[in-house]
Amino acid sequence: MPELPEIETIRLRLRNGDHESPSIVGRKILSARLFWNRTLAYPTPDEFQNQIQGEIIQDVLRRGKFFVFPLSTKYLLIHLRMSGDLIVEDDSYKVHKHHRLIFSLSDGIRFAFNNPRKFGRVWLLDDPKPILGELGPEPLDPDFTKEDFYGRLHPRRRQLKPLLMDQHFLAGLGNIYTDESLFRARLHPVSLASTLTRLESENLFEAIRDVLRQGILRNGASIDWVYRGGDFQNYFFVYRRTGEPCYRCGTPIKRIIVGQRSTHFCPNCQRLSRD
DNA sequence: ACGAGCGCCTGTCGGC
DNA sequence: TGCCGACAGGCGCTCG
After folding, report:
1. Which chain C positions come under 7 Å from a protein C-beta?
2. Burial class of residue A9 in the structure, from the number of CB atoms within 10 Å of its CB (0-12 exposed, 13-18 middle, 19+ buried)
3. Is strand B within 7 Å of residue A129 (CB)?
4. Could you say which of A3, A6, A8, A200 is catalytic?
5. What pLDDT score was predicted for residue A223?
6. What global pTM score does this model have?
């Protein structure tokens, strides 16, 4: 389920708690149970079990699509990849079949990494920089400006869609929010980045920020069997609307494959400008 | 530098 | 009912 707005929604629930589950901040990790070894990117299962015990969760942060948990002496990083959720529940519950890693916390509560497709990864590190330092800027960072964006975009001879989804270029966009951003900016997904005018680049920058902010306000999107509780899926303009009329001009929304991914756009509103 | 192809996984959905 | 292919919010790896 994971793009920036969904990760942010889960982050806020973990940090602040809600009517169903308490915050995990300030709680001690008593033990960890691993159900799928390859969930751990680093270190080994034995080292992980030993090092995590007794650590206290200091905060719940986010960088791009990564969850960042500063602990007493280390950093826990979690990436959901294509599916999954982070769940706080009573430790006496029957273990769900897709739970891959469970942290038992104080007061009979547990913190579970649910990951049906097993693509998600967990790191326990002294220093998160080697992983997080590779990421591009945070799109919603107030210090990230439209001039910065143009400066990064303009030198690139690359199609817009795969460039925007490249986490080294910009951190947080995935398939949904990229398609929605390009529609709002009226840009064709395979236009080359280097061909954008300064104005087009600024429009794209603002579109990305608007879409991400709206996604967060709606608590993310919930589609398929991975239901999250957000409702941004009801406000998509193009994503998974193949054949349905464009809300702006009525032209049927088109679906093509770009960079191995489904791509949805309005062939009338989003014209190609290759060179 | 860039794009295409593929692997990694489990599940849903539609067609026959 | 079952089987089969297409598809799914990600990313890292090869290979041209």
Report:
1. 7-12
2. buried
3. no
4. A3
5. 87
6. 0.97
Q: What is the dihedral of CA A216, A63, A224, A20, to 10 degrees?
A: -70
A168 touches strand B (CB under 7 A): no
Average pLDDT over residues A167-190: 98
Average pLDDT over residues A34-51: 97
**CA–CA distance, A230 with A222 (Å, rounded to integer):** 6
Please give the average per-residue pLDDT across A191-216, as a whole number.
98
Q: Which nucleotides of B are covered by protein (CB under 7 A)?
A: 1-13
Q: In the 133-162 stretch of chain A, whose C-beta falls under 7 Å of nucleic acid strand C?
A: none
> Which of A128, A116, A121 lies closest to A38, judged by CA?
A121
Domains assigned to chain A: 4-132 (3.20.190.10), 146-265 (1.10.8.50)
pLDDT of A226 above 70: no
Is the previous residue joined to A2 through a cis bond, with omega within 30 degrees of 0?
no
Quote the percentage of chain A above a pLDDT of 90.
Answer: 95
